[in-house]
Amino acid sequence: MENNENIFENQPQQPSIPENPVFYTQPVEPAQPQPIPVQPVINTQPPVSPEAPVEKKKSGVVWKILLACGIALSLVIISCSVTAYYSSRYWVTQNSQLSAKFNTLSKEFKELEDFVDSNSYTGNGNSISGTTNSDPAKVYAQNKRSVVAISNQSSSTNIFGQVTQTASSGSGFIVSSDGYIVTNYHVIQGAKSLTVITYDETEYTATVVGYDDGNDFALLKVDAADLPAVTLGSSSALIEGDQVAAIGNPLGELTNTLTVGVISAKDRDVEFETSIINMLQTDAAINPGNSGGPLFNMRGEVVGITTAKISSEAVESLGFAIPIDDVKDMITQLIDKGYLSTPYMGVSINNSRDGVGVYVTGVEAGSPAATAGIRTGDLIVGVDDYETTTLNQLDLVLRSFKPGQTVSVFVYRNREVVELTLTFGEKQQAPTA
User: Fold this and answer.
1) Which of 155, 200, 211, 413 is the most buried (most CB within 10 A)?
2) Is residue 405 pLDDT above 90, yes or no?
3) Residue 288 CA: distances (Å) to CA of 115, 177, 186, 310, 408
4) Average pLDDT, the chain
């Protein structure tokens, strides 16, 4: 404590401040602010125009746009590539197919050109239908041994009840070396006995294998071997103007007679007593006794069966032959099966009075017609695309079909045409004349 006191003792004394001091103040004028001299600054630089505001780049949006454009471009390129690939394949395929067709057509054209060159008209009646540069003499020499004469011994009863023996003759041609012979049905109709006489005058007893009277066709058989057979051609390949040759037995006496003509027309519907037969028309002489004989093209192929001649003072050189194409299937059926299989409806029919259809007079129970819904009293007016206004027309139409085929049959009933569906049955032709 003593030391502390000494410290304060050495400190200078502060004047004391009297209580309640009195302050004397003298007013003092505030100092006036003095202006500061400013030196003017002269800008010697040219004025600078204000810069346009610069927008900030939106880098994120730009990249998105670029990415989208890149993707779109890639898709377009891929799409174009795929399209180009498949288009290329398509056109390559098309080009290949067109090339193949062109080559085929070129080949066919060349074949046709060669065909025309070798088969065109030569003055012997040959044409581009398929006949070769042959002549009737060669055709005759090639086929005369295949043509036969047929003698039909039949009996009939006259109005007095007397039985008389009659004989008729016709022609035929050998279609197989083992003795099958084609002729007309009317040549062997009602026969009690049939005799076939060959070119070398050998006689054979013949039997009837089968026939189709609607087509005036019959097939005979003789017991023989190694017979000279003809070659069957195509009647559908013929054209009007083609030269043809007929070989036959006119008048039953003039065996192996040759007559020559041309095809005057095809697809002639010739009406006989009980049927209409599709025929070839020719101006080759066809006389009684020629019936059943062959009609040859200039290749020496059989294209028809000579059948009929229109007899009239006003008509000359108007003969007809059955197209061979219409009987080929019958020949095969009879040789293979021994009978003809024809389409069967199971109706009794007759011509209508007004000629507008085929009148149904009866329907067999359980027959294809009964199953189809055909009724007695119906008028059959059509089968598929064919009109049938008469019995003969219906018969001709039915030859276009086979057993088992299904067709539309149109019948007139209760003042309206009704369409029915019919499936043909099979009818076997009995091998008797």
Assistant:
1) 211
2) yes
3) 38, 27, 12, 11, 41
4) 79
Q: Count of residues for the chain?
A: 433
Q: How far is residue 187's CA from residue 220's CA, in Å, rounded to a whole number?
A: 11
User: Quick one: how far is CA 429 from the chain centroid?
Assistant: 32
**Which residues participate in catalysis according to the annotation?**
186, 216, 291
DSSP secondary structure string for all residues of 42-54 = ---SPP-PPPPPP
Least confident of 281-285, 297-301, 395-399: 395-399
* Angle value at C-alpha 346, between 345 and 348, nearest 5 degrees: 115
pLDDT at 195: 92
Taking 80 as the threshold, does the pLDDT of residue 99 lie above it?
Answer: no
- Tokens of residue 208, six digits: 């009837």
For 334, the enclosing helix (H) or strand (E) is helix 328-337
Comparing CA positions, the residue from 385, 384, 380 lying closest to residue 348 is: 380
Find out whether 324 and 161 touch, Cβ atoms under 8 Å. no
Find out whether 402 and 396 touch, Cβ atoms under 8 Å.
Answer: no
Return the structure tokens found at 177. Answer: 């070396």
Spell out the long-range contacts of 399-403 with Cβ–Cβ below 8 A and sequence spacing 24 or more: 399/214, 399/215, 399/326, 401/343, 402/341, 402/343, 403/341, 403/342, 403/343, 403/344, 403/427
Q: State CA 78 to chain mean position distance.
A: 43
CA angle 53, 55, 58 (to 5 degrees): 175
Rg of the chain in Å (alpha carbons) = 57
User: What pLDDT sits at residue 296?
Assistant: 96
